[in-house]
């Protein structure tokens, strides 16, 4: 409203001024360049007004002409100008839709307009869509070179190395990440790599000394240390280094006293060292958990060091921990046959074949027939039954489950075999 009133007042003043000039106009005359000019004062004022307007128009045209190159440059630039929010939206949508060509195109348009760290992060996401390990690895290497994105880069490199089954490289990158980061993911990756590379002594050192291992639950820490010590002990035992084998086997026993493979290994070590009472102690421990034909074989191997009665007494004592078990019946039958206690042998064999004919039970029955009455026909019949019967050499299998981080006897999609006894 005020602007309208001001404009009306200005027009009124201008009109009044022109009317005053028209009514009180005098004459102006001047000589210049041989000309004599006479005109009214009002007309000269009007002329000057038009002159100044023309000069202003010319000056405006002059500056427009001078600015043509700059305006043309802006026109071209605006034609090629990147709409950063729009292109970033296109890129993210393409990434989440797994559209690599579109995502790559959007990223190329954005490269010079985004910070380097953000560009590298987006480049790694785009590379993952293409599923080419070389390109993915390069993207993660670029991330790992900058402090702000170092963790993401190294974690990516670890994942690539895992896909390539390059566990030494996984350990190398884990060592690098371990200096700056601590996480359960890194801990499980470390453990996975050490196990896959069969680096059991390094695993022991890692669990006992690395700050990462503080994330391990107490029971899992014990299990891992027991497994690792058992594997090291077994390797030493196979190379006939009894001293170190015993050292690590006892360490495994300290961490996990009911780990059957280690108990069997301790029984073997003690038997090899002719410490038979100690060997029997560990066989008893196995029998209390789950009777094993491996433990039975160790006991049979030290049979010659005892009298008949003493050995049979040891066998009865051991099998008494699990009297109804198939392995207990077989062991008792073998011991009884060996010393001529045929009634005990027949009773034990009969129990072992109550449900079904099995290979070893049938063979022991054939041996019983041969030793008691020597009926060749009956012996041959039991041998034939053995050949056609169910195999009963049961191995106890143990696995480390990487998903649950626990020892299991049942193989899963992500497990590693620890022992077969």
Q: How is this structure best described in words?
A:
The structure is a single chain. By secondary structure, the chain is mainly α. It has helices at 2-23, 41-66, 68-80, 84-96, 100-110, 116-130, 133-144, 150-163, 167-178, 184-196, 200-209, 218-238, 242-255, 260-272, 276-289, 293-301, 308-319, 326-339, 342-352, 359-372, 376-387; strands at residues 27-32, 35-40, 397-401, 406-408, 415-420. α15 runs parallel beside α17 (308-319). The protein starts with a helix and ends with a strand.
Give descriptors for this structure.
single chain; 421 residues; mainly alpha; three-stranded antiparallel beta sheet; two-stranded antiparallel ribbon; 21 helices; 5 strands; 70% helix; rod-shaped
Short description:
70% of the residues lie in helices and 6% in strands.
User: What is the number of strand segments?
Assistant: 5
Radius of gyration, CA atoms, in whole angstroms: 48 Å
Order of helices and strands: HEEHHHHHHHHHHHHHHHHHHHHEEE
Strand content: 5-15%
Shape: rod-shaped
Helix content: over 70%
Spatial arrangement of strands, main beta sheet: 4-3-5
How do the strands and helices of this protein lay out in sequence?
Blueprint: H1 2-23, E1 27-32, E2 35-40, H2 41-66, H3 68-80, H4 84-96, H5 100-110, H6 116-130, H7 133-144, H8 150-163, H9 167-178, H10 184-196, H11 200-209, H12 218-238, H13 242-255, H14 260-272, H15 276-289, H16 293-301, H17 308-319, H18 326-339, H19 342-352, H20 359-372, H21 376-387, E3 397-401, E4 406-408, E5 415-420
Antiparallel strand pairs: 1-2, 3-4, 3-5
Helix pairs in contact: 4-5, 5-6, 6-7, 7-8, 8-9, 9-10, 11-12, 12-13, 12-14, 13-14, 14-15, 15-16, 15-17, 17-18, 18-19, 18-20, 19-20, 20-21
């Amino acid at each position: 409203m005020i602007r309208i009133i001001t404009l009306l007042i200005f027009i009124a003043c201008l009109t009044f001024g022109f009317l005053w000039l028209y009514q009180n106009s005098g004459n102006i005359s001047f000589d210049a360049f041989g000309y004599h000019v006479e005109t009214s004062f009002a007309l000269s004022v009007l002329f000057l007004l038009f002159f100044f307007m023309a000069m202003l128009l010319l000056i405006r045209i002059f500056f427009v002409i001078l600015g043509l190159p700059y305006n043309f440059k802006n026109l071209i630039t605006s034609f090629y100008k990147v709409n950063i929010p729009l292109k970033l939206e296109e890129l993210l949508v393409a990434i989440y839709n797994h559209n690599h060509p579109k995502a790559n195109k959007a990223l190329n348009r954005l490269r010079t307009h985004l910070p380097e760290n953000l560009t590298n992060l987006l480049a790694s996401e785009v590379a993952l869509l293409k599923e080419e390990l070389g390109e993915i690895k390069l993207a993660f290497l670029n991330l790992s070179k900058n402090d702000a994105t170092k963790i993401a880069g190294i974690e990516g490199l670890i994942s690539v190395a895992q896909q390539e089954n390059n566990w030494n490289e996984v350990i190398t990158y884990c060592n690098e990440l371990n200096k700056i980061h601590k996480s359960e993911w890194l801990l499980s990756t470390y453990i996975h790599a050490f196990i896959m590379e069969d680096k059991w002594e390094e695993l022991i050192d890692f669990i006992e000394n690395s700050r990462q291992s503080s994330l391990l639950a107490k029971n899992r820490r014990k299990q891992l240390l027991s497994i690792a010590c058992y594997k090291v002990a077994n390797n030493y035992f196979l190379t006939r280094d009894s001293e170190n084998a015993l050292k690590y086997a006892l360490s495994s026993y300290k961490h996990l006293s009911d780990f059957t493979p280690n108990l069997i290994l301790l029984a073997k070590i003690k038997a090899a060292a002719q410490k038979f009472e100690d060997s029997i102690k560990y066989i008893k421990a196995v029998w209390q958990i789950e009777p094993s034909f491996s433990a039975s074989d160790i006991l049979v191997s030290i049979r010659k060091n005892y009298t008949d009665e003493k050995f049979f007494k040891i066998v009865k004592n051991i099998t008494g921990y699990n009297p109804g078990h198939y392995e207990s019946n077989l062991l008792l039958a073998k011991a009884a046959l060996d010393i001529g206690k045929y009634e005990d042998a027949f009773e034990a064999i009969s129990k072992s074949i109550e449900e079904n004919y099995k290979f070893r039970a049938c063979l022991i029955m054939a041996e019983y027939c041969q030793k008691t009455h020597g009926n060749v026909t009956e012996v041959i019949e039991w041998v034939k039954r053995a050949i056609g019967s169910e195999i009963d050499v049961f191995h106890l299998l143990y696995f480390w489950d990487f998903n649950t981080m626990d020892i299991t006897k049942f193989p899963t999609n992500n497990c590693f075999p620890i022992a077969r006894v």
